[in-house]
Specification:
73% of the residues lie in helices and 0% in strands. By secondary structure, the protein is mostly helical. The chain has a domain of 251 residues.
Length: 463
């Protein structure tokens, strides 16, 4: 195997990380680094990504890749994230966020002296929601709209609140998860059976370990950085107050509005059989449904249809703000990951794992760790798992063992790695709404997930 491409890719990766750490514009760093890697791959005659419709020139096709990345993202996850951003802006504008906070403060005030305890309780609850809402970025933003302001009001620092929200997406499990579907096919086991018999017993223990580790890690770092500028700033967007005192008092019923999308997605998920004819609802659709209901609430309260129509502008502005900050960063991160793949960085990791000379357990451990690292590099658990998972069948046949020995830890390490990647969609989205850097969240997530990946290996391969 030619290692020139992977070596160049790793050098560019390290330099890109260095520039981002030094506060250089991450949009520019990721975009131009990705284009440079694609051009190098072309010059080295490596496997450059093929565009759906060529311009007629291989050189110009690199720029068409950017166009296709925009089209793909905006038609899928980009639209979903923008709709959530618009909804978050709208419920803040009408006072629904404040209503939810005010309603939740009284019963939760018992945790005022132990805010970190309340914060980590979000993790197991959020993981249950993640089974019903298998979009990491989507769930992260929904929790930012509903849970984040409550945590802030009760004294949890923004960085701690953001970190536990991203931790809710740590385990890609459940019938609706793309990783679970692929994994169940590889081990030739029905999805539900794989979920109940394989995923739940292991994730149950790992989730408890993760919760405990976050409690101590966040408590330690918050005490270490207990300065007013770090903790007291209670904002959701960096240029707006979280709880604007000028917002008109609204009925307590408005507290229901921020959680409507979550309720819709749970009720209309394939995990429940509430209807004779199955009804499946995606996140974007639930956002628009919730928006219309919120507007009807406003119409009843204000009795002015002109006021309600004018307020819709806030929703569009919210979508635009998310596009220019979060969605564009996800798009350039996609170009960056394509560059890494084109230079053969992932292929080199696979080659190294196959020729390391370990026994079957050693190879399984190496594959698990490689997927974890690949998820961090590419910012996507799905991408890394789909790249490595097919190899498990070949390796299991070579060693005459069950492919489940490889697949389950690879499945979990892929989604865990995403939560430690500064270019993953969920970290980018949550950090933007929290007004902090993705790198700050990565620093908080690194220790708990370092512990968790170690415990995953112990629980699966030793105990």
């Amino acid at each position: 195997m030619n290692f020139l491409g992977p070596i160049l890719g790793l050098l560019i990766l390290c330099y890109s990380v260095l520039l981002i750490v030094r506060k250089v514009n991450p949009y520019a760093v990721l975009l131009f680094s990705g284009l440079v890697m694609l051009l190098l791959a072309w010059c080295l005659e490596l496997n450059v990504p093929v565009v759906k419709k060529t311009t007629g020139s291989q050189l110009l096709d690199f720029f068409r890749l950017i166009k296709e990345a925009f089209a793909k993202t905006n038609a899928g996850v980009g639209l979903m994230i923008m709709s959530i951003g618009g909804f978050v802006a709208y419920i803040k504008h009408i006072g629904a966020s404040s209503a939810l906070v005010n309603l939740a403060i009284k019963p939760l005030s018992l945790f005022k002296k132990k805010p970190q305890l309340l914060a980590v309780m979000v993790i197991p609850i959020g993981q249950l929601l993640f089974i019903c809402i298998p979009s990491a970025a989507g769930l992260g933003l929904l929790l930012m709209a509903s849970v984040f302001p409550i945590l802030i009001k009760l004294g949890v620092s923004r960085i701690s609140a953001a970190s536990v929200i991203t931790a809710c997406t740590a385990f890609g499990i459940g019938p609706a998860s793309a990783i679970t579907t692929q994994a169940s096919e590889i081990v030739s086991q029905p999805v539900i059976s794989y979920f109940i018999e394989s995923q739940i017993p292991l994730v149950y223990i790992l989730s408890m370990i993760l919760t405990v580790s976050y409690y101590f890690v966040n408590s330690y770092f918050d005490k270490k950085k207990a300065s007013s500028s770090y903790i007291q700033d209670e904002i959701l967007f960096s240029d707006e107050q979280m709880l604007d005192e000028s917002v008109e008092k609204v009925p307590k019923l408005y507290a229901l509005i921020p959680v409507l999308p979550l309720l819709f997605l749970i009720v209309f998920s394939n995990l429940f059989d509430f209807f004779n004819d199955p009804i499946l609802l995606d996140t974007t659709t639930s956002m628009f449904m919730s928006l219309i209901i919120a507007m009807l609430f406003e119409l009843v309260r204000t009795k002015s249809i002109l006021h309600v129509f004018d307020s819709l502008t806030v929703f569009w502005h919210g979508m635009g703000n998310i596009f220019k900050t979060v969605v564009t960063l996800i798009i350039v991160a996609d170009v960056f990951s394509k560059g890494l793949i084109a230079l053969g960085v992932i292929d080199a990791l696979v080659f190294a794992s196959q020729n390391i000379g370990f026994g079957v357990i050693g190879i399984a451990v190496i594959m698990t760790l490689l997927i974890f690292v690949s998820s961090i590099i590419m910012g996507s658990g799905n991408a890394s798992f789909f790249a490595f998972a097919p190899l498990s069948s070949k390796i299991s046949e070579t060693y005459e063992v069950s492919s489940s020995l490889f697949v389950l830890p690879m499945n979990l390490s892929a989604s865990m790695g995403r939560t430690v990647s500064p270019i993953s969609g969920v970290l980018i989205a949550v950090s933007e709404l929290a007004g902090i850097s993705p790198i700050d969240i990565v620093k908080r997530n690194a220790i708990p997930f370092g512990i968790n990946i170690f415990m995953l290996l112990i629980l699966h391969f030793v105990l």
